[in-house]
Amino acid sequence: MNDIIRPSLKVQLGKIKFKNPVITCSGTFSHGEEHMVFYDIGKLGAVTTKSYSLLPMKGNPPPRICETASGVLNSIGLQNDGIDSFIYRHLPWMKGAGASIILSIFGRTTEEFKKIALRILDIKSEILAVELNLSCPNLEQGGKAFCAVPEEVKRVVDSVVSMLDIPVIVKLSPDFETIDRSAELARQSGAEAISIINTVVGMAVDIDTAKPLLGNVTGGLSGPAVKPIALARVYQLCQQDILPVIAMGGVFGYRDLLEFLIVGARAVGIGTANFVQYDIGERILNDLTAYLREKKIDDVNKIIGRLKVEKKQA
Amino acid sequence: MNDIIRPSLKVQLGKIKFKNPVITCSGTFSHGEEHMVFYDIGKLGAVTTKSYSLLPMKGNPPPRICETASGVLNSIGLQNDGIDSFIYRHLPWMKGAGASIILSIFGRTTEEFKKIALRILDIKSEILAVELNLSCPNLEQGGKAFCAVPEEVKRVVDSVVSMLDIPVIVKLSPDFETIDRSAELARQSGAEAISIINTVVGMAVDIDTAKPLLGNVTGGLSGPAVKPIALARVYQLCQQDILPVIAMGGVFGYRDLLEFLIVGARAVGIGTANFVQYDIGERILNDLTAYLREKKIDDVNKIIGRLKVEKKQA
Amino acid sequence: MKLLNSEILSNQQYGPGIFKMELFSPYIVRNVMAGQFVNIRCAPNDGTDPLLRRPFSVFDIEERFNVFSVLYMVKGKGTGYMSSLRKGDTVDLAGPMGSGIDLNTGSKDILLIGGGMGIAPLNLIAKMALARGKNVFIMAGFRDSSLLRWERDLVRMEVKYRIFSEDGKWGEKGLVSEYIFEGDRFYKKHEIYVCGPVEMLKIIQEKLGRYQISATALLEEKMACGIGVCMGCVVKIRGKNGSFSYKRVCREGPAFELSEVVFE
Amino acid sequence: MKLLNSEILSNQQYGPGIFKMELFSPYIVRNVMAGQFVNIRCAPNDGTDPLLRRPFSVFDIEERFNVFSVLYMVKGKGTGYMSSLRKGDTVDLAGPMGSGIDLNTGSKDILLIGGGMGIAPLNLIAKMALARGKNVFIMAGFRDSSLLRWERDLVRMEVKYRIFSEDGKWGEKGLVSEYIFEGDRFYKKHEIYVCGPVEMLKIIQEKLGRYQISATALLEEKMACGIGVCMGCVVKIRGKNGSFSYKRVCREGPAFELSEVVFE
Ligand SMILES: Cc1cc2nc3c(=O)[nH]c(=O)nc-3n(C[C@H](O)[C@H](O)[C@H](O)COP(=O)(O)OP(=O)(O)OC[C@H]3O[C@@H](n4cnc5c(N)ncnc54)[C@H](O)[C@@H]3O)c2cc1C
Ligand SMILES: Cc1cc2nc3c(=O)[nH]c(=O)nc-3n(C[C@H](O)[C@H](O)[C@H](O)COP(=O)(O)OP(=O)(O)OC[C@H]3O[C@@H](n4cnc5c(N)ncnc54)[C@H](O)[C@@H]3O)c2cc1C
Ligand SMILES: Cc1cc2nc3c(=O)[nH]c(=O)nc-3n(C[C@H](O)[C@H](O)[C@H](O)COP(=O)(O)O)c2cc1C
Ligand SMILES: Cc1cc2nc3c(=O)[nH]c(=O)nc-3n(C[C@H](O)[C@H](O)[C@H](O)COP(=O)(O)O)c2cc1C
Ligand code: FES
Ligand code: FES
User: Fold this and answer.
1) What's chain C's Rg over C-alpha atoms?
2) Tens place of pLDDT for every residue, chain D, 264 residues?
3) Please, what's the b/e burial string for C77-100 (b: 16 or more CB within 10 A of its CB; e: otherwise)?
4) Alpha-carbon C220 to chain mean position
5) A61, burial (CB in 10 Å: exposed 0-12, middle 13-18, buried 19+)
6) What is the pLDDT of residue C124?
7) Partners of B185 in the β-ladder
8) Are the beta carbons of C254 and C219 closer than 8 angstroms?
9) Interface contact C49, partner B, CB < 8 A
10) Gap between the Cα atoms of A118 and C190, Å rounded
11) What DSSP string runs through A38-77?
């Protein structure tokens, strides 16, 4: 009855090729070691590492996690062991596990980004792409996020691209209206794709103590609560057709992934869901394949950007 | 055992006096007629009417509602009968019901705002304040929201304030980074308070038909999902201490209301919750009173702005 | 209209994926009119997912016992939650809602045309019309025989009916909408009520339109509030001279003159 | 560590607002070490509220029957949901998690100091230590007698214990933390495990510190993932030369050397 045995799942974003559009988001999957207990992470389109800075960072004081309605606030504060720890400890493990790797990095100055890029030079053949987490604070702009100021995005991308001949992905936050402009400047500077959304700024208060529920006062909201926001941002960006888009925000099942593909994303990241359904990556991959088969769609690319908008007259 | 029989609930925002900080949000309570079946709306600090334009507006094509995780997307499109219908039909009923009234209005040009202000002149003694819904599209700026451009906020506030000697509240959307600037210009132009947040831009897609789940493609997200976002915006604005703040976004119980008061809001609006718990206004009012009594707090103002932030060193 | 906590007297499978929930509520039983619905909260305690209430037509009432029932199909989270409830649990509901249909006046002959779960509100119309001494004739079409059990209710009501099913396994084989209107005589003398999928309503609208026969359609639309405050549940209704307006299913409806509904 | 669907064998009240849930799981029973926990999904099906799993210490295991249990206090949505489950329902859980405590080595004398629900992990430590022929002495303090039933479990385990309660209605009147350390002799020869509210841990840390007696504290922190990927559940741990680092309760913990924990 069913002819499509193995629908093609390959997607391409500029020069970046993924074997399928199911990837995991930075900071929510570590390097895959923990999840490898639950499924073979080599099956994923890509694993995005946590974001690395040049030197180790301690991160923010606890509490760092606060659950909200259908969402999670976090103020991890980018705790990480520094880029060298990735290169010497985690990368070898990831290669061994057969993971396709997106390396996420951040700096607090353009200079720091450059220094990290320098370290990566040697291992560039072992990773699919570098993702620049530009939602991190830019010390040269008083701690405002890099992506708040499109020109700062440009500066960083310019310098990283000039040093590394591997694809660069720019990750943006939904909190700024400058998304289109940042994407455009990133394109001009040679970025390959845009990842969106990072978490949304949020907060929660313990009414009994009158203290913020996060050690860092505000934090980033993720999970199903933000999915409609992410989808609107991805849709709006895809409409501009500036760069291919990797979408993320609240994906908890294959139906969410399909929504993002339909509005135009070429790959979709799973974040918070990794905390709840440890095998979600594999599950979504299987469900996607089953869906395509059932609908007799032989190539996942046929779904991408297929949104039907019939603006009715009111 | 308990000495505080009747804690004082009065709050004041500039010249606006509310008998208590519990108000209902524009567009979620109509004029209170429907909710009057469930409780006496005269008890509320204020009822904010739906937003009125000069002439009747049909609104957006259906579907207009889509439920999301702990939230609701709507694309009502400001359907309303026009300001005259408020003045001649609804206002008399509201006065009869003993409601304290905030009249919400919007125009698509500054001119339209002025024309509406002119109509209100006669009834100004019957309302507590006028709320300018500045999240509506500004036709003079290509349909971008008024509050996207602080100078446009100023233009509207200037003209309304110059015509009406009743307090003006400016309602802003969380989607723009210009909140502080808009608030500052609104203050300079004589506004009395800021209402925040309006809904967050969001979207949802029906994967079976590949069509948006809202007739208008994108819509506004409200409900518990957005509470952390609203709280962060209110906190950040209150920190600036530009104008008193009326907070809203995801309030479903008195604990939510207290969170907003603690970060500095002087009054709190109930929106989407009116759709689910029809008696929520009265319930929150009772629960707030009971809470203050239990905590032996004799005046609700003692809670406002009491957030304890001890930024720990990481 | 009231907010109520009603006790479940039974919540049993009626067909595959279909349940009938019987609730104790003197208030609903005393006040409900044909065509009205109740709005049920489908999350435990202060849960926020699903957030909104779910509307369900009142399917039946048992005045002697102060019991009313809803017939529902499990579709998603809300109805899934409902199906997990048991006898003795209470349900947070509000109702009766919507403008009811007054069966004390109007024609003595009532024709009800239903498709699938659309029979839910028609069942109560039938019961109430019969109680007022009217003649009720039901034509109902189904995809399969999931709702087979309903025939027992019809037999008990002693109502005239014809059943159609697409697979022919229940009643006659075919679609109601196809069968209908081989002529107009019969239909003209009846007061007609229609409830079912949009595709069916469209065909019937078109066919009745040819003979300018009026009918009342019971519509569904996604709802946020159910009480008329949000303007979310509107349908497009034709006005005079090519104009139209958006009317609320939860207030002006769910019953509308079929010929005036604009399906898009 | 595995994702499991475990059947509930019983879920009964243990005290006011406190339940004990017994679950069938050969895998957990075979693999769990003292101090480990399971991470339970507390929303039905694909519900998103509450979103995150909830961590619970393994309270007890019955190897013969492949049954383990968790003792939990109803605090909010998650535990409220758990308390609504019944025998025969299945629970989506993952475990065992956290680095366990190896009781095959170490001192022959074990002292367990617990406060309130903090007794949950201590119970399993006691059981496992006894099974390894160790001497176990328990000192536990409570606000009231909600956990009274636990004394039956202690008697059955044939363990030595002293109970304190603030109201004096159960065991001796007073706080464990006050009572403790009238001298240091007794404590020095024991391997000590402590679990309870932060206030209690602080006092004990201070008192033990005076005599430089080491102890293992079982800590709690809000968790997002429970498997070590999110860096959410960290506590501040003193390093050498005044330095410190953030360690994960779900991976490096829940057991930490008490003297190294920085309470803020
Ligand atoms: C006035 C009225 C009366 C109704 N009476 C009945 C009845 O007697 N029996 C019955 O089984 N159903 C009835 N419905 C439909 C019922 O409300 C929906 O099936 C229910 O809300 C689905 O909830 P869910 O959480 O299970 O599904 P969801 O997960 O919310 O959605 C599952 C599917 O149901 C559709 N749906 C969701 N809400 C509605 C809605 N308000 N109206 C129509 N479709 C919806 C969605 O588009 C989706 O395709 C009625 C609807 C209205 C408006
Ligand atoms: C390693 C570990 C082992 C635990 N073992 C047990 C146990 O054996 N028995 C038991 O009853 N409880 C145990 N807890 C605490 C238990 O996880 C929380 O009580 C539970 O998550 C509350 O969920 P809720 O949805 O009911 O409450 P919520 O509505 O989430 O919160 C209610 C209250 O509980 C607090 N809380 C929420 N999550 C946690 C958490 N992860 N840790 C501590 N406090 C929290 C909140 O701050 C709030 O004050 C343990 C926690 C950890 C970290
Ligand atoms: C605990 C946590 C840590 C995160 N850390 C990072 C990070 O280091 N770098 C980054 O670019 N994004 C980080 N993110 C953002 C996610 O990668 C993702 O963009 C966001 O969570 C939205 O997706 P989701 O809703 O599926 O989680 C983090 C998110 C969470 C919840
Ligand atoms: C259906 C609906 C209609 C709304 N209409 C208006 C409106 O006409 N004017 C306005 O200023 N805000 C309107 N809002 C926004 C609310 O007033 C409120 O700012 C927002 O919903 C956030 O609060 P909540 O999360 O409690 O709903 C509307 C919101 C909803 C859900
Ligand atoms: S559902 Fe809100 S107006 Fe009908
Ligand atoms: S809970 Fe995620 S690292 Fe511990």
Assistant:
1) 18
2) 999 999 999 999 999 999 999 999 999 999 999 999 999 999 987 789 999 999 999 999 999 999 999 999 999 999 999 999 999 999 999 999 999 999 988 889 999 999 999 999 999 999 999 999 999 999 999 999 999 999 999 999 989 999 999 988 999 888 888 777 666 667 778 899 999 999 999 999 998 888 888 999 999 999 999 999 999 999 999 998 889 999 999 999 999 999 999 998
3) bbbbbbbebeeeeebbbbbbbbeb
4) 9
5) buried
6) 97
7) none
8) yes
9) yes
10) 84
11) TS-GGGSSEEEPPPB-SS-B--PPSP-EEEETTEEEE---
Distance in angstroms (rounded) separating the CA atoms of residues A135 and D143 = 46
Cα separation values, A35 from A274, C80, D2, Å: 8, 31, 10
User: Rounded to an integer, what distance in angstroms lies between the CA atom of residue D114 and that of residue D197?
Assistant: 9
Please state the φ and ψ torsions of residue C150, each to the nearest 5 degrees. Answer: -60, -30
Question: Is beta strand A267-270 parallel, antiparallel or unpaired with respect to A245-248?
Answer: parallel
Cα of D54 vs centre of ligand 2, distance in Å, is: 7
Residue contact A276–D226, C-beta within 8 A? no
Q: How far is CA C12 from CA A267, B217, C86, C97, C154, in A?
A: 44, 39, 9, 24, 18
| Burial of D169 per CB tally in 10 Å (0-12, 13-18, 19+) | exposed
Q: Cβ of A70 and C264 within 8 Å? A: no
SS3 label, residue C1: coil
DSSP letter at B8 equals B
Residues 171-230 of D with CB under 8 A from A: 221-230
**From first to last of its 264 residues, what are the pLDDT tens digits of chain C?**
999 999 999 999 999 999 999 999 999 999 999 999 999 999 987 789 999 999 999 999 999 999 999 999 999 999 999 999 999 999 999 999 999 999 988 889 999 999 999 999 999 999 999 999 999 999 999 999 999 999 999 999 889 999 999 988 999 888 888 777 666 667 778 899 999 999 999 999 998 888 888 999 999 999 999 999 999 999 999 998 889 999 999 999 999 999 999 998
Identify the bridge partners of residue A147 per DSSP, sorted by sequence position. Answer: none
For residue D160, list its beta bridge partners: D137
List B25, B136, B147, B238, catalytic entry: B136
Which residue from B312, B237, B222, B220 is spatially nearest to B273, judged by alpha carbons? B222
How close, in Å, is residue A12 to chain D by CA atoms? 28
- Tokens encoding A135: 């939602």
Tokens at B312, concatenated: 């720990």
Whole-number pLDDT of residue C184: 66
pLDDT of residue D188: 78
Q: In chain C, what are the domains?
A: 2-97 (2.40.30.10), 101-217 (3.40.50.80), 219-264 (2.10.240)
Question: Using an 8 Å Cβ cutoff, are C231 and B64 in contact?
Answer: yes
- Tokens 């009626």 correspond to C14
Phi, psi of A247 (to 5 degrees): -105, 150
Query: A-chain residues within 8 Å CB-CB of D236?
Result: 61-62
Reduced to 3 states, what is the DSSP secondary structure of residue D258?
Answer: helix
Report d(CA C175, CA C165) in Å as an integer: 7
DSSP-derived secondary structure letter, B98? T
Q: Residue B1's pLDDT is what?
A: 47
- pTM, 2 dp: 0.96
Domains by residue range for chain A, with CATH = 11-59+78-201+222-302 (3.20.20.70)
Strands C109-115 and C191-195, bridge-based pairing:
parallel
The ipTM (two decimal places) reads 0.96
Phi/psi of residue B105, nearest 5 degrees: -135, 160
Give the number of residues written for chain C: 264
Report whether B164 contacts B189 (CB < 8 A). no
Instruction: Say whether B136 is catalytic.
Output: yes
Beta bridge partners of A208: none
CB A224 within 8 A of CB B70: yes
